[in-house]
Amino acid sequence: MRVASLYDIHGNLPALEAVLADVGRSRVDKVVVGGDVASGPLPAQTVEALLALGDRAWFVRGNADREVVEAYDAGRVDAAAESEPARRAAVFAAAALSRDQRDFLAGFSDTVTVNLEGLGETLFCHGSPRDDDEIITAATPPQRLRRILTGVRQRVVVCGHTHQQFDRRLDSYRVINAGSVGVPYEGRAGAYWALLGPGVELRRTEYELEPALARLRGGGFPDLEEMVGESLLDPVDPAWVADFFEGQAEGRSR
Which range of residues forms the domain containing residue 97? Predict the structure, then answer.
């Protein structure tokens, strides 16, 4: 089986559309969507595009999906009242979604396991196998990564959450980050994803930024300029991003 792995779309519908077109040319059997799909500029439209995949796709819950559902259930509708960008994004998305779209997000799985050609049993998670908000990067120290993987039966783990592709090995494990479709931290613009089976291909799909940005700006998302500035217009240095995330992970472990 060959699988397209799409993570961290964050409401960037033009990027998703470009990737889905690329996926359609890539002879895949299934799509695994690895979480954080709606929290961003065009939440409802992005969810509709994913719903259209039907039984071709499996869905893994990300921390942002969980937070959008929580905001919906709490009846929070005023994004401007939230002081933190992630909470503003969750409330913005929740206010835009229908009940059916909310229920779709709430139905995502914690993890998905797929038997892939050439790779065997592969575990798809969002942050880590044990926590949708846990940080794994290309710079994660081996000792911390070993703790994260303790008890994981599958030898191949695919994650997201940190918006940066990598493919690394530790002991008998192979850990892959598929990258981010909508908000990549790769040092150059594009929509990033992974094609799995029989090998691992870390993919980048180009799309026209100016018309995409016009569509995204039309959605009224409160933090759009910061989002696209750091990821697409003036991308931050990938090494700095990995170090930043590792600093966050170290702070949480204290």
Answer: 3-253
